[in-house]
Amino acid sequence: xxxxxxxxxxxxxxxxxxxxxxxxxxxxxxxxxxxxxxxxxxxxxxxxxxxxxxxxxxxxxxxxxxxxxxxxxxxxxxxxxxxxxxxxxxxxxxxxxxxxxxxxxxxxxxxxxxxxxxxxxxxxxxxxxxxxxxxxxxxxxxxxxxxxxxxxxxxxxxxxxxxxxxxxxxxxxxxxxxxxxxxxxxxxxxxxxxxxxxxxxxxxxxxxxxxxxxxxxxxxxxxxxxxxxxxxxxxxxxxxxxxxxxxxxxxxxxxxxxxxxxxxxxxxxxxxxxxxxxxxxxxxxxxxxxxxxxxxxxxxxxxxxxxxxxxxxxxxxxxxxxxxxxxxxxxxxxxxxxxxxxxxxxxxxxxxxxxxxxxxxxxxxxxxxxxxxxxxxxxxxxxxxxxxxxxxxxxxxxxxxxxxxxxxxxxxxxxxxxxxxxxxxxxxxxxxxxxxxxxxxxxxxxxxxxxxxxxxxxxxxxxxxxxxxxxxxxxxxxxxxxxxxxxxxxxxxxxxxxxxxxxxxxxxxxxxxxxxxxxxxxxxxxxxxxx
Length: 531
Description:
It is built from 22 helices and 2 strands. The chain has helices at residues 14-26, 32-56, 82-104, 108-112, 115-131, 135-154, 159-190, 195-205, 209-225, 235-241, 244-269, 276-298, 302-323, 326-357, 368-371, 373-387, 393-408, 411-439, 454-469, 474-488, 491-499, 512-519; strands at 63-66, 77-80. The radius of gyration is 25 Å and the shape is globular.
């Protein structure tokens, strides 16, 4: 800790540098096993460094990495508190499983065009989004992440990829353009883009219409990034068009980047007094939950069904943020881990199912429980978790969210509670329909079965084991979520940890009178005075 009371550390840099360095190495001409080894080691190191961040911030410390030795708000800083370390660990886990799936499922065409390097750059952008300490570098992180995702979304150049990739790119470019405009407006109004300094300035100014407008604009941007209805129209078509491992990464963590930004802006940076942003999020969350559930029920392709469940899970998170009470925020923070890990496992299971059946349809064949009983059990577990059925972790998280909505008690909260209950029932029916159509019944021996090795199934089994273990660590997860919630609501703690003991004061701009005095020429000498 330096003289200003800031806990300076290089540890927040580590989860960024590991995938970035490995991505640059993977651009060099080398054998496949060397690229695979570099990617696996980098993502494993990312998980380890993120776990160290979680341990280092468990006591409420905020680690600050000052790039170039410049203190905030004048320089670029990376910050790690409980929330960012938690999200960084989830991002590292998803990145590790994605690279693992790519390693055991060779794709020579896409790997020829640097699929491993692009995936590592994508992981770098995600980690930077979680660990950056200012709004403009959040925009930079989005662009690093999105440029890599743009390339991965069209890598392969199939007609479906190009069509859906174009929609994905246009939507995200529009959101990024609005974000950079909002950054300019924020700097014009508050004179800074650093999170801690923005929090300090907003507290100094108090509730003003200009700050409320900035908060709403940022909320719209991050709602689009998080694929909340109706801004997430691009998601159900985009994810199925991607390579299988890449779609698992997109589905599990990319939408959560938008959710993280919403949490950060609405708690740490701007604690808006107006109830309008919360009502807006409640409405978006209610529609997203129902739209995701009904969309999943209407689809008959593996990853299209699961893509709609992703929208539904983001809706539950928006529901928790929209309720706005401490209990709701705690429940939403706990449910983030459930959503990320269950989505990851379901998409990895879908990848195996598509390979073994040779088609993306869930109704093409039946009876795969005879050939892959463990995969069938993993899908049933993750399906029940996604729908919130007892005694899974999904039920624990959704119960906490719905209970918080009931306790809040407003008419809009009751509407969202009913929407959440209906969406859970519809999602359960949709997932059981997939189970019945694909796994249940007697296998048709005359149709060919495409072999899938154990090494290709192992990522799905391992991810499902993580989902299975979630109910057993629900207590520690809620305890961490409680501590994170209290920390997020204490703006002064974050401000002191990043800016130091003495507050940063921006001098007032000169008034018109001051400028006139400075620029006024000296008066001409009076008659009789010497020249």
